[in-house]
Amino acid sequence: MAWRTAKSLILLRAQIDALAPHRSRASDGTIGDAAHAAQKSDHNPWVMDGAVGVVTAIDITHDAHNGCDAGKLVEQLIASRDPRIKYIIWNSQIISAVNKPWQLRAYTGKNPHTHHFHLSVLPERALYDLEHPWPV
Ligand SMILES: [Zn+2]
Q1: How far is the CA of 79 from the centre of ligand 1 (A)?
Q2: What single string gives the DSSP state of each residue in 24-46?
Q3: How far is the CA of 91 from the centre of ligand 1 (A)?
Q4: Ligand 1 centre and the CA of 120: distance in Å?
Q5: pLDDT by residue, tens only, the chain of 136 residues
Q6: 96 Cα–ligand 1 center, Å
Q7: Which of 34, 32, 45, 38 is CA-nearest to residue 2?
Q8: Number of folded domains in the chain?
C-alpha cells in the first residue's frame, strides 16, 4: 500500500534538524517496523487519505549533546497544547490530548522511550497535514 508521513511531522523533523543539524538519528522513525506492524500503532499507516495510508507518528532521537534534548522539546510541545497533538511518550511517561487530557501519566509499555520521544498527531487531515511551525 502506498503510504506517506503526515506533513506536520515532516515539518517538525525539519525544524529539529535545523536546530540540531548534527543530532543523532539512531532512534528516529516514522513508518512502523515489523514489531510495530503487529501492534496498534500510529506508526502504521492506518489513517487513509484517499488510497494513501498516512503515518501519524514520529520518533525523534534524544541527543542532548548535539542540541536535541528530548526532555526540553517535549516540555515545549506540552506547554504549547498544540491542537495537532494526540499524545506524546517520553522517559516512561505519556501525556495525551484525548485521554485524561494533558495529565502526565506513567507509561508502562515495553519500550520506556528513553532514547527517543514519540509524538502522535490526530487523525484529521486538517490537523496532521497542517504545516504551521511547531513551537520548538
Ligand atoms: Zn514511536
Answers
A1: 20
A2: --TT-BSS--HHHHTS--TTS--
A3: 12
A4: 8
A5: 899 999 999 999 999 999 999 999 999 999 987 767 777 889 999 999 999 999 999 999 999 999 999 999 999 999 999 999 999 999 999 999 999 999 999 999 989 999 999 999 999 999 999 999 999 9
A6: 14
A7: 45
A8: 1
> Three cell numbers at 84?
495537532
Question: Tell me, what amino acid is at 55?
Answer: V
Residue 13 Cα to ligand 1 midpoint, Å, equals 13
pTM over 0.85: yes
- Residue 19 lies inside a defined structural domain of this protein: yes
Distance 116 CA to ligand 1 centre (A): 8
Give the domain range for residue 53: 3-127
Residue 136 in any domain: the answer is no
